[in-house]
Automatic annotation (TrEMBL):
Compartments where located: Cell membrane
Name of the protein described by the UniProt record: Phosphate transport system permease protein PstA
Record keywords, A-Z: Cell membrane, Membrane, Phosphate transport, Transmembrane, Transmembrane helix, Transport
Gene this protein is translated from: pstA
Keyword Transmembrane helix: yes
Amino acid sequence: MTTVSVPIANSLTAGKLPRFTALWLLLGCFAVTGAIFGVMQAAVVTTSYNITGAVFFGIVLYCIAIWIVSRAVEGYRKAKDRLVTALVSTAFTIALLPLISVAFTVVVNGAARFDPDFFNSSMRNVVGPGGGALHAIIGTLLITGMATVISVPIGLLTSIYLVEYGRGRLARGITFFVDVMTGIPSIVAGLFAYALFALLFSDPGIRFGFGGAVALSVLMIPVVVRSSEEMLKLVPNELREASYALGVPKWLTIVKIVLPTSVAGIITGIMISIARVIGETAPLLIIAGFTASMNYNLFSERMMTLPVFVYTQYANQGADTQAYIDRAWTGALTLILIVALLNVIARLIAKFFAPKIAR
């Protein structure tokens, strides 16, 4: 009796698709769905070409095609890997599309007034074309800077207490209120600041920049506390214990060991908190107000900020509508660039102060 040997299929040594097969499949699927939607658009003359639908169904067709082709050539395991990779890449692209769309739209529309006049003049006595947002840029930097000065020490010291000292009901109470503050609407912070200063100064019409900074600090503090707390928890306990073993007191261990080790993450958290509040409009409308003139004094008179500038330019358009819309888009672009610049500066600071590891 003769036995016939059957070759064993090994998925790890199965065939392999050529290098650019996936790319060509994707382009082919886009071509197919694009042609189908083109025929549909030609059949129904009244409708415009649906590029979003063509791209979406092209991706769906690609996921099916890459599974079938890979299953036939490379085996079940590799086909499943390619399918999951395609799905993850699709999900990432879908999540990235709104960001790309917003950035592209703001850059294209904001470039119309992105000129020196926009950055060296205010809106005082301007009712048509021209003018700029210098007063709003200065106001944004002053109010956000003051809010950072208020929030960072309070938030950082609170997180140090919770991680290094906090035990019992007080720590649990602080954690609970921080969680509650994290989710409060921004307009509530503005109403709180307005009510506080209206009662303190007995002036129901009070509007000034420092009140806006206090409102923003209410929104910043919980973010600083949460981010700093998580960074401090990541510091290994062995570092603390080694410092205590050398006789170093606890406060000095925190200053010299714990904080320098976690400084990069803490700075990143602070930048996140600044980005969280720098675009807020509602609380600043309530307590800081708006003006067309320059104001460098946080403690006197109304102060304009970039978010409020964008809102007022778009909401209160004059006779020359396009001039107001152009200024609004350029203000939004400027705000995005300020946030991006702050993040770059934060990365450089974090890299400079991060502990150096010997190699």
